[in-house]
Write a structure and sequence with these properties.
By secondary structure, this protein is mainly α. The chain is 94% helix and 0% strand. It contains two helices and no strands.
């Protein structure tokens, strides 16, 4: 203890501050750091779940867009087919009208 006293350090006060330091560290760890660490871990899990959900939603959107393109293409083909049929019927009627007009 004389060596500490020669340096101007009070041994009893040093012991008191060491005990106080470890007590404060225990309290912070018990009621401060652990709950904060738990909250941060839960937040990390929620963020990871949100990213996974976003990835799945992106894939679903891409699939929906591809399906929509297929439906639009099928509808366009059907529309083109119907227009072609209508044009063909109109042409037949026009020819029939000419034949009737020529025959009359």
């Amino acid at each position: 203890m004389d060596a500490l006293a020669n340096l101007g350090i009070n041994g009893g006060l040093l012991l008191f501050f060491a005990v106080y330091f470890f007590l404060v560290m225990f309290v912070f760890t018990r009621w401060g750091f652990d709950p904060i660490r738990k909250i941060l871990h839960e937040r990390k899990l929620k963020i990871a779940q949100g990213l996974e959900d976003a990835r799945i939603a992106g894939e679903a959107r891409a699939n929906a867009e591809a399906q929509a393109k297929l439906v639009i293409a099928e509808a366009q083909q059907e529309a083109n087919r119907r227009v072609a049929e209508a044009v063909e019927r109109a042409e037949r009627r026009r020819r029939q009208g000419r034949c009737e007009a020529d025959g009359a």
